[in-house]
């Protein structure tokens, strides 16, 4: 195993902790503490308790990890439940 290799697991968020950290229960029934990856922060991807996520874990410390992806379930809509904005109307010059 190379030094850069990370282990990927899927899990469910069970608790939201301070400082953008979460407690995640993995599919193999282990609890770990994860933080959000840079892209999730950059794109402001919101996560809540019960969301299914993918986590990267270093083989050297199996108690901490990094959340890299939030899976969409079938119940969520594409626009997040918001309506589309009405078309803009501009004043015409005379």
Structural class: mainly beta
Q: How does the overall form come out from the CA principal axes?
A: elongated
CATH architecture of the domain at 7-70: Beta Barrel
**What is the CATH fold-level name of the domain at 7-70?**
OB fold (Dihydrolipoamide Acetyltransferase, E2P)
Helix share of residues?
Answer: under 10%
Query: What is the mean pLDDT?
Result: 84
How would you characterize the overall build of this protein?
The chain is mainly beta and 94 residues long. 5% of the residues lie in helices and 43% in strands. The protein has a domain at 7-70: Nucleic acid-binding proteins (OB fold (Dihydrolipoamide Acetyltransferase, E2P), Beta Barrel). The protein is elongated. It starts with 6 loop residues before the first strand and ends in a 24-residue tail after the last strand. 10% of the residues are buried.
């Amino acid at each position: 195993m190379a030094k850069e290799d990370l282990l990927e697991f899927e899990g469910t968020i069970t608790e939201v902790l301070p400082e953008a950290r979460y407690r995640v229960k993995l599919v193999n029934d282990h609890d770990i503490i994860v933080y959000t990856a840079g892209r999730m922060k950059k794109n402001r991807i919101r996560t809540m308790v019960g969301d299914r996520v993918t986590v990267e874990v270093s083989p050297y410390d199996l108690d901490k990890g990094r959340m890299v992806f939030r899976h969409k379930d079938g119940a969520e809509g594409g626009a997040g439940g918001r309506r589309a904005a009405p078309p803009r109307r501009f004043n015409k010059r005379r």
